[in-house]
Protein backbone atom coordinates (compact mmCIF):
# COMPACT_ATOMS: atom_id res chain seq x y z
CA UNK A 1 0.00 0.00 0.00
CA UNK A 2 2.83 2.41 0.89
CA UNK A 3 4.61 1.57 -2.36
CA UNK A 4 1.46 2.29 -4.33
CA UNK A 5 0.93 5.64 -2.59
CA UNK A 6 4.56 6.69 -3.08
CA UNK A 7 4.49 5.70 -6.76
CA UNK A 8 1.21 7.52 -7.32
CA UNK A 9 2.45 10.71 -5.67
CA UNK A 10 5.75 10.60 -7.56
CA UNK A 11 3.94 10.02 -10.85
CA UNK A 12 1.54 12.90 -10.20
CA UNK A 13 4.37 15.20 -9.11
CA UNK A 14 6.27 14.60 -12.34
CA UNK A 15 3.16 15.30 -14.42
CA UNK A 16 2.29 18.44 -12.46
CA UNK A 17 5.83 19.77 -12.75
CA UNK A 18 6.17 19.14 -16.49
CA UNK A 19 4.43 22.28 -17.81
CA UNK A 20 6.36 24.36 -15.27
CA UNK A 21 9.68 22.93 -16.53
CA UNK A 22 8.85 23.54 -20.19
CA UNK A 23 7.61 27.10 -19.68
CA UNK A 24 10.35 28.06 -17.22
CA UNK A 25 13.15 26.76 -19.47
CA UNK A 26 11.70 28.76 -22.36
CA UNK A 27 11.58 31.85 -20.18
CA UNK A 28 15.14 31.15 -19.01
CA UNK A 29 16.40 31.30 -22.61
CA UNK A 30 14.42 34.50 -23.17
CA UNK A 31 15.84 36.16 -20.07
CA UNK A 32 19.37 35.01 -20.86
CA UNK A 33 19.14 37.26 -23.93
CA UNK A 34 18.22 40.21 -21.73
CA UNK A 35 14.48 40.21 -22.45
CA UNK A 36 11.97 40.06 -19.60
CA UNK A 37 8.67 38.65 -20.85
CA UNK A 38 5.97 38.55 -18.17
CA UNK A 39 3.35 37.28 -20.60
CA UNK A 40 3.78 33.56 -19.88
CA UNK A 41 0.34 33.24 -18.28
CA UNK A 42 -1.48 34.63 -21.30
CA UNK A 43 0.75 32.76 -23.73
CA UNK A 44 0.03 29.47 -21.93
CA UNK A 45 -3.70 30.19 -22.11
CA UNK A 46 -3.49 30.75 -25.87
CA UNK A 47 -1.42 27.58 -26.28
CA UNK A 48 -3.98 25.64 -24.25
CA UNK A 49 -6.98 26.71 -26.32
CA UNK A 50 -5.12 26.34 -29.63
CA UNK A 51 -3.87 22.88 -28.65
CA UNK A 52 -7.32 21.75 -27.55
CA UNK A 53 -9.01 23.07 -30.71
CA UNK A 54 -6.47 21.46 -33.03
CA UNK A 55 -6.69 18.13 -31.22
CA UNK A 56 -10.48 18.25 -31.24
CA UNK A 57 -10.67 18.81 -35.00
CA UNK A 58 -7.81 16.52 -36.07
CA UNK A 59 -7.87 13.83 -33.39
CA UNK A 60 -4.07 14.03 -33.19
CA UNK A 61 -2.69 15.31 -29.86
CA UNK A 62 0.72 16.04 -31.36
CA UNK A 63 -0.83 18.34 -33.92
CA UNK A 64 -2.45 19.97 -30.92
CA UNK A 65 0.96 20.46 -29.33
CA UNK A 66 2.22 21.93 -32.61
CA UNK A 67 -0.76 24.32 -32.70
CA UNK A 68 -0.11 25.36 -29.13
CA UNK A 69 3.56 25.95 -29.91
CA UNK A 70 2.62 28.06 -32.93
CA UNK A 71 0.14 30.12 -30.92
CA UNK A 72 2.76 30.73 -28.24
CA UNK A 73 5.37 31.74 -30.82
CA UNK A 74 2.95 34.22 -32.41
CA UNK A 75 2.17 35.74 -29.04
CA UNK A 76 5.86 36.17 -28.33
CA UNK A 77 6.42 37.74 -31.74
CA UNK A 78 3.75 40.29 -30.85
CA UNK A 79 5.62 40.96 -27.63
CA UNK A 80 8.87 41.26 -29.59
CA UNK A 81 7.31 43.74 -32.01
CA UNK A 82 6.22 45.92 -29.11
CA UNK A 83 9.41 45.77 -27.06
CA UNK A 84 12.26 45.07 -29.48
CA UNK A 85 11.09 47.02 -32.53
CA UNK A 86 8.82 49.71 -31.06
CA UNK A 87 10.85 49.91 -27.82
CA UNK A 88 7.84 49.67 -25.50
CA UNK A 89 8.38 48.97 -21.81
CA UNK A 90 8.96 45.23 -21.34
CA UNK A 91 7.19 44.91 -17.99
CA UNK A 92 4.08 46.79 -19.12
CA UNK A 93 4.00 44.92 -22.44
CA UNK A 94 4.32 41.56 -20.73
CA UNK A 95 1.46 42.32 -18.35
CA UNK A 96 -0.65 43.52 -21.27
CA UNK A 97 0.16 40.32 -23.15
CA UNK A 98 -1.05 38.26 -20.21
CA UNK A 99 -4.34 40.15 -19.98
CA UNK A 100 -4.79 39.94 -23.75
CA UNK A 101 -3.99 36.21 -23.91
CA UNK A 102 -6.24 35.25 -21.00
CA UNK A 103 -9.14 37.25 -22.42
CA UNK A 104 -8.72 36.12 -26.02
CA UNK A 105 -8.36 32.47 -25.03
CA UNK A 106 -11.58 32.68 -23.00
CA UNK A 107 -13.38 34.14 -26.02
CA UNK A 108 -12.00 31.58 -28.49
CA UNK A 109 -12.58 28.70 -26.09
CA UNK A 110 -16.30 29.30 -25.47
CA UNK A 111 -17.43 26.69 -28.07
CA UNK A 112 -15.13 24.06 -26.53
CA UNK A 113 -16.12 24.35 -22.87
CA UNK A 114 -18.48 21.36 -22.88
CA UNK A 115 -16.14 19.08 -24.83
CA UNK A 116 -13.53 16.56 -23.73
CA UNK A 117 -10.72 14.77 -25.54
CA UNK A 118 -9.69 11.16 -25.48
CA UNK A 119 -6.93 10.57 -22.95
CA UNK A 120 -3.48 10.26 -24.50
CA UNK A 121 -1.89 6.94 -23.49
CA UNK A 122 1.40 6.90 -21.63
CA UNK A 123 4.56 5.57 -23.22
CA UNK A 124 5.98 2.66 -21.24
CA UNK A 125 9.71 1.98 -21.40
CA UNK A 126 10.28 -1.79 -21.06
CA UNK A 127 12.39 -3.13 -18.18
CA UNK A 128 12.91 0.34 -16.66
CA UNK A 129 9.20 0.62 -15.88
CA UNK A 130 9.49 -2.57 -13.79
CA UNK A 131 11.90 -1.02 -11.26
CA UNK A 132 10.16 -1.05 -7.86
CA UNK A 133 8.76 2.21 -6.53
CA UNK A 134 10.22 4.61 -9.11
CA UNK A 135 9.94 2.60 -12.33
CA UNK A 136 6.19 2.98 -12.92
CA UNK A 137 6.39 6.69 -12.12
CA UNK A 138 9.48 7.58 -14.16
CA UNK A 139 9.21 5.27 -17.15
CA UNK A 140 5.49 4.96 -17.81
CA UNK A 141 4.81 8.60 -18.53
CA UNK A 142 3.30 10.97 -21.06
CA UNK A 143 5.51 11.79 -24.03
CA UNK A 144 5.82 15.46 -23.00
CA UNK A 145 7.26 14.41 -19.64
CA UNK A 146 10.11 12.76 -21.52
CA UNK A 147 10.27 15.83 -23.76
CA UNK A 148 10.79 18.07 -20.71
CA UNK A 149 13.81 15.99 -19.69
CA UNK A 150 15.25 16.16 -23.19
CA UNK A 151 14.58 19.90 -23.25
CA UNK A 152 16.52 20.34 -20.01
CA UNK A 153 19.52 18.49 -21.48
CA UNK A 154 19.28 20.52 -24.69
CA UNK A 155 19.13 23.84 -22.84
CA UNK A 156 22.14 22.95 -20.66
CA UNK A 157 24.16 21.92 -23.71
CA UNK A 158 23.08 24.99 -25.66
CA UNK A 159 23.90 27.50 -22.93
CA UNK A 160 27.19 26.07 -21.70
CA UNK A 161 28.61 23.91 -24.50
CA UNK A 162 27.70 25.65 -27.75
CA UNK A 163 28.96 28.77 -29.46
CA UNK A 164 25.38 29.97 -30.03
CA UNK A 165 24.68 29.74 -26.30
CA UNK A 166 27.79 31.77 -25.54
CA UNK A 167 26.62 34.44 -27.97
CA UNK A 168 23.17 34.47 -26.38
CA UNK A 169 24.64 34.95 -22.92
CA UNK A 170 26.92 37.68 -24.25
CA UNK A 171 23.92 39.52 -25.65
CA UNK A 172 22.21 39.29 -22.27
CA UNK A 173 25.26 40.52 -20.41
CA UNK A 174 26.37 43.34 -22.70
CA UNK A 175 24.33 43.95 -25.85
CA UNK A 176 26.48 46.91 -26.89
CA UNK A 177 29.63 44.76 -26.80
CA UNK A 178 27.93 41.99 -28.79
CA UNK A 179 26.75 44.53 -31.35
CA UNK A 180 30.22 46.06 -31.64
CA UNK A 181 31.68 42.72 -32.80
CA UNK A 182 28.99 42.19 -35.41
CA UNK A 183 26.15 40.28 -33.78
CA UNK A 184 22.53 41.25 -34.37
CA UNK A 185 21.30 41.87 -30.85
CA UNK A 186 17.71 42.48 -31.90
CA UNK A 187 17.66 39.39 -34.13
CA UNK A 188 19.06 37.18 -31.36
CA UNK A 189 16.58 38.56 -28.88
CA UNK A 190 13.73 37.92 -31.31
CA UNK A 191 14.83 34.28 -31.65
CA UNK A 192 15.14 33.83 -27.88
CA UNK A 193 11.77 35.46 -27.24
CA UNK A 194 10.09 33.33 -29.91
CA UNK A 195 11.56 30.17 -28.40
CA UNK A 196 10.31 31.16 -24.96
CA UNK A 197 6.83 31.82 -26.33
CA UNK A 198 6.80 28.50 -28.19
CA UNK A 199 7.67 26.65 -24.96
CA UNK A 200 4.91 28.50 -23.11
CA UNK A 201 2.50 27.42 -25.85
CA UNK A 202 3.59 23.79 -25.46
CA UNK A 203 3.13 24.07 -21.70
CA UNK A 204 -0.40 25.32 -22.22
CA UNK A 205 -1.18 22.60 -24.75
CA UNK A 206 0.06 19.99 -22.27
CA UNK A 207 -2.56 21.15 -19.78
CA UNK A 208 -5.52 21.00 -22.16
CA UNK A 209 -4.52 17.96 -24.24
CA UNK A 210 -2.55 15.66 -21.93
CA UNK A 211 -3.13 16.72 -18.33
CA UNK A 212 -6.90 17.16 -18.10
CA UNK A 213 -7.79 16.69 -21.14
CA UNK A 214 -10.41 19.39 -21.60
CA UNK A 215 -10.68 23.13 -22.00
CA UNK A 216 -11.93 25.31 -19.14
CA UNK A 217 -11.55 29.06 -18.90
CA UNK A 218 -8.81 29.89 -16.40
CA UNK A 219 -7.31 26.41 -16.47
CA UNK A 220 -3.75 27.76 -16.46
CA UNK A 221 -4.48 28.93 -12.89
CA UNK A 222 -1.33 30.94 -12.30
CA UNK A 223 1.13 28.36 -13.59
CA UNK A 224 2.62 30.96 -15.92
CA UNK A 225 3.42 33.18 -12.96
CA UNK A 226 4.90 30.25 -11.03
CA UNK A 227 7.10 29.43 -14.06
CA UNK A 228 8.33 33.03 -14.11
CA UNK A 229 9.09 32.83 -10.39
CA UNK A 230 10.92 29.53 -10.97
CA UNK A 231 13.50 31.25 -13.15
CA UNK A 232 14.38 33.58 -10.28
CA UNK A 233 14.12 30.73 -7.77
CA UNK A 234 16.63 28.78 -9.88
CA UNK A 235 18.88 31.86 -10.19
CA UNK A 236 18.83 31.35 -13.96
CA UNK A 237 20.29 27.80 -13.78
CA UNK A 238 18.52 25.03 -15.75
CA UNK A 239 18.97 22.16 -13.27
CA UNK A 240 17.53 24.25 -10.47
CA UNK A 241 14.56 25.01 -12.70
CA UNK A 242 13.73 21.30 -12.82
CA UNK A 243 14.21 20.89 -9.07
CA UNK A 244 11.99 23.89 -8.37
CA UNK A 245 9.33 22.74 -10.82
CA UNK A 246 9.06 19.34 -9.14
CA UNK A 247 9.06 21.01 -5.73
CA UNK A 248 6.08 23.17 -6.68
CA UNK A 249 4.49 20.25 -8.51
CA UNK A 250 4.79 18.19 -5.33
CA UNK A 251 3.13 20.96 -3.31
CA UNK A 252 0.28 21.12 -5.83
CA UNK A 253 -0.24 17.37 -5.72
CA UNK A 254 0.11 17.03 -1.95
CA UNK A 255 -2.82 19.35 -1.30
CA UNK A 256 -4.94 17.31 -3.72
CA UNK A 257 -3.96 14.06 -2.00
CA UNK A 258 -4.76 15.58 1.39
CA UNK A 259 -8.17 16.77 0.24
CA UNK A 260 -8.93 13.42 -1.38
CA UNK A 261 -7.67 11.25 1.46
CA UNK A 262 -10.66 11.88 3.71
CA UNK A 263 -8.42 12.90 6.61
CA UNK A 264 -10.16 15.12 9.13
CA UNK A 265 -7.86 18.13 8.96
CA UNK A 266 -9.09 21.39 10.42
CA UNK A 267 -7.74 23.43 7.53
CA UNK A 268 -9.98 25.12 4.95
CA UNK A 269 -9.72 23.59 1.49
CA UNK A 270 -9.15 27.07 0.07
CA UNK A 271 -5.97 27.38 2.12
CA UNK A 272 -4.74 24.01 0.86
CA UNK A 273 -5.42 25.12 -2.73
CA UNK A 274 -3.38 28.27 -2.10
CA UNK A 275 -0.33 26.32 -0.88
CA UNK A 276 1.58 26.35 -4.22
CA UNK A 277 1.25 30.12 -4.47
CA UNK A 278 2.15 30.67 -0.82
CA UNK A 279 5.21 28.49 -1.35
CA UNK A 280 6.15 30.60 -4.38
CA UNK A 281 5.95 33.83 -2.38
CA UNK A 282 7.93 32.42 0.55
CA UNK A 283 10.69 31.07 -1.69
CA UNK A 284 11.01 34.35 -3.59
CA UNK A 285 11.18 36.33 -0.34
CA UNK A 286 13.96 34.06 0.96
CA UNK A 287 15.91 34.28 -2.30
CA UNK A 288 15.56 38.05 -2.57
CA UNK A 289 17.39 38.41 0.74
CA UNK A 290 20.60 37.26 -0.98
CA UNK A 291 21.15 40.06 -3.46
CA UNK A 292 24.68 38.91 -4.28
CA UNK A 293 23.47 35.57 -5.68
CA UNK A 294 20.90 37.31 -7.86
CA UNK A 295 23.42 39.84 -9.17
CA UNK A 296 25.97 37.13 -9.99
CA UNK A 297 23.57 35.02 -12.04
CA UNK A 298 20.99 37.36 -13.56
CA UNK A 299 21.77 38.80 -17.03
CA UNK A 300 23.12 42.33 -16.63
CA UNK A 301 20.83 43.82 -19.29
CA UNK A 302 17.67 41.99 -18.20
CA UNK A 303 14.62 44.12 -18.94
CA UNK A 304 16.65 46.96 -20.42
CA UNK A 305 15.75 48.13 -23.95
CA UNK A 306 18.50 48.28 -26.54
CA UNK A 307 18.56 50.27 -29.74
CA UNK A 308 21.63 49.62 -31.92
CA UNK A 309 23.45 52.63 -33.30
CA UNK A 310 22.76 53.34 -36.94
From TrEMBL:
One Pfam match: BPD_transp_2
Record localization: Cell inner membrane
InterPro entries: ABC_transp_permease (IPR001851)
Molecular function per GO: transmembrane transporter activity
Broad class of the protein's primary localization: membrane
Transmembrane spans: 6-26, 38-57, 63-84, 91-108, 143-160, 181-208, 214-234, 241-258, 270-287
Membrane topology summary: Multi-pass membrane protein
Tagged with keyword Transport: no
Entry keyword annotation includes Disulfide bond: no
Domain of life: Bacteria
Keywords of this entry: Cell membrane, Membrane, Transmembrane, Transmembrane helix
Protein name: ABC transporter permease
Annotated GO CC locations: plasma membrane
Amino acid sequence: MEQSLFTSMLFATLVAGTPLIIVALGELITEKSGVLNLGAEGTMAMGAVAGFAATHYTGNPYLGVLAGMTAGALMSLLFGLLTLTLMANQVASGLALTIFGVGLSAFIGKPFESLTLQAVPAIRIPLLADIPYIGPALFNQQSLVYFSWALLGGVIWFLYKSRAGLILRAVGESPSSAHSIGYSVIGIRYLATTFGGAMSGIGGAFLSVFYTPLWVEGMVSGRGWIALALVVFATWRPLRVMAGAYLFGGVMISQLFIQGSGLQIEVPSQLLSALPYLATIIVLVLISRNQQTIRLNSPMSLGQPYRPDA
